[in-house]
Design brief:
By secondary structure, the chain is mostly helical. 81% of the residues lie in helices and 0% in strands. It has a domain of 126 residues: Serine Threonine Protein Phosphatase 5, Tetratricopeptide repeat (Alpha Horseshoe), CATH 1.25.40. The longest helix is centred in the C-terminal third of the chain and has 57 residues.
């Protein structure tokens, strides 16, 4: 029984050593490619190192670096976060470095609130890091500018919505006015009674008769003729 246990222990030890050697070899090769600016190739090796490691802090951290160089900032942020969460035995400076890079990735993605939070955590771990302090200040300025631009956009949107509403109201008023005008044109003229019509006709006849009588009187009146004077 003891022999079996010892043999099993040796096999486990050998497999662990082989696993570690495989992880380290991928990381070393990835680092060489990274220095040659072959970031995609380095990414492949770093991912392989993670597959061969039980606690792939180095692989996750370096993977984040290679992804950052390829401008895939959201993926880089995930790698830095994974590295930070697995840093059980790391120093405060090492943890702060992961958070600093996490903040940089968030900053590049214009996620300013998240980047500010990462920088603040990094400074708690390493208060003397001036690079992190500078980046924190820069991220706060960018977030302020973003908020001001958002407020400006909201005001312009409200103004445009108000103008659009006014135009719609004016159009509705114009449409209603046209409908009212058309309705007035369609309404029948007011009808008068027969008695009123007879009275109006009689009044017109009376006026006409008075006019005729007046003309007759004027014709009957003698015309005075100017007489010439004798010399």
């Amino acid at each position: 029984m003891k022999t079996i246990l010892i043999s099993t222990g040796i096999l486990l030890l050998l497999s662990t050593v082989a696993l570690a050697q495989s992880e380290n070899s991928y990381i070393r090769n990835g680092n060489i490619l990274y220095k040659e600016n072959k970031f995609k190739d380095a990414e492949i090796d770093y991912r392989k190192s993670i597959e061969h490691s039980k606690n792939p802090v180095k692989g996750q951290y370096n993977l984040g670096n290679s992804l950052y160089k390829q401008n895939t900032y959201d993926e880089a942020a995930k790698s830095y976060m994974n590295a930070f969460q697995q840093m059980k035995n790391a120093t405060a400076e090492q943890k702060a470095a992961a958070l600093h890079n996490l903040g940089n990735s968030m900053l590049k993605s214009e996620k300013y609130a998240e980047s500010i939070d990462a920088y603040k955590q990094a400074l708690r771990l390493n208060p003397k890091d001036e690079d992190t302090r500078y980046n924190l200040s820069y991220a706060m300025q960018k977030m302020q500018q973003q908020q001001q631009q958002q407020q400006k956009n909201d005001k312009n949107k409200d103004k445009n919505d108000k103008n659009k509403e006014d135009q719609q109201n004016n159009q509705q008023n114009n449409d209603q006015q046209q409908q009212d005008d058309q309705q007035e044109q369609k309404q029948p003229r007011q009808q008068i009674s027969k008695q009123d019509a007879e009275r109006m006709l009689q009044a017109l006849n009376n006026d006409e008769q008075r006019t005729i009588d007046k003309l007759k009187k004027q014709k009957a009146k003698p015309v005075q003729v100017q007489v010439e004077k004798d010399w």
